[in-house]
User: What shape does this take?
Amino acid sequence: MSASALSAKIARRIGAEGPLPVAAFMAIALYDPELGYYATRRPIGAGGDFVTAPEISQIFGELVGLWCALMWQRIGCPDPVILAELGPGSGVLAADLLRAAAAIPEFRRAIRLHLVEVSPILRIEQQRRLAMADPHLHTRIEDLPDGPILLVANEFLDALPIRQLVRRGRHWRERMVALDQEGHLAFVDGPESPALSLLVPEALRETAPAGAVFEICPSALALATALGARLKCQPGAALFIDYGRFPSSTGSSLRAVRHHQPVGALDAPGEADLSADVDFATFAAAAGGAGAEAHGPVPQGRFLENLGALPRLAALSARALPAQRQRLESGLERLLEPKQMGILFKVMALTAAGLPAPPGFDRPD
Assistant: This one.
């Protein structure tokens, strides 16, 4: 099916129900079971729309595996332990993680791999790549079983639908998606609402200028709350790696990417990846309010260096051919360098309250 088919479906819904909140538009564009982005295509890699850190360097997944092993030891070496990945993509991160975990046989034997993935295309690829690990595949986070857990999510939160609130006059309004006079999708502002204003942090509510945009991700806050409550009662830890903001701030971050190039957010629903910055401060506050402790965020480059990225590069390079060595060096440079992904991407961990800072975390920025 084409983007025009999904655009027409969205237009019919707007015609029947009125303008849609941005979050509802994103949910349809990304997750419609028949025409949505994740239902119809393989988004990752040179032939897709974007590339993530695990595809850039094997060291990324190996160090995440090391982090999980160290956290497993800190929570008492439970056997079994649920190792869950949210949005595992092609399965490369999990494969690299498990290979690193094999260096600690007791940890590897304790792992029960659980993957949460909405894309039927990617689920097939994950099942093939990770068959030897006997993964349990889920479409909902709520289906993860109880028990000690180590959870990893790389570039997961940024794909969750966001609400956009716009300051107009004294109060804030919700940004909506409507139809213009030609029947094309267009952004409009909903009615002014004192209740919506209360969703904006007090520090920004009254000081933001006219036209300022504040973004809320209800799904991310629900996840943080659920994980916080779980970690209050059960051993475990969660690691989130994504691009985003800290502290909270205003500004529209909704973006669309198609074939590795930016496009308009409303131009090609179902054909382009949609994402938005993660608000790490509100995510941490939600998790903390439910009983967990948030660590970070720290820049991705510092996190990986703290875990030993450079010694691992040296070890791999020592037995690599020149062409392989060049790929290893350039890949890790892309992940570490401040002008590339080293600062743009941030890392946050959730643990039970009272534990020391997890490996890789020194101080928040």
